[in-house]
Amino acid sequence: MNIHEDLRNQGLVRPRQGRVLGGVCAGLGRRFGLSPWGARVLFVLALMILPGSQLIIYPILWVLMPDEQPTWQQPPAWQQPTWQGPAS
């Protein structure tokens, strides 16, 4: 098991929707039950209290947190291409 699978199993993924920069705050907010903007506000407040540490942590989490897996849906039958065979 690698770090990406471990984080994905824990629910720490960067969502495809609601990103502003890399999706780290949105992913952390989703994991801990906060809105993406709530997580961003907490991140900025933590930056004011402990300056500098978040500037190191954010890029590391950006690399380590996997992207959210896309939910693929099969298109309806009328949208699926049909093969007609070679032209005669």
TrEMBL record:
This protein's GO CC annotations: plasma membrane
Subcellular location: Cell membrane
Record keyword Hydrolase present: no
Membrane topology recorded in Swiss-Prot or TrEMBL: Single-pass membrane protein
Signal peptide: none
InterPro entries from the UniProt entry: Phageshock_PspC_N, PspC
Keyword terms: Cell membrane, Membrane, Transmembrane, Transmembrane helix
Keyword DNA damage appears in the UniProt entry: no
Transmembrane feature ranges: 41-65
Chief location bin: membrane
Domain Phage shock protein PspC N-terminal: 11-68
Protein's recorded name: Phage-shock protein
Organism for this UniProt entry: Cellulomonas carbonis T26
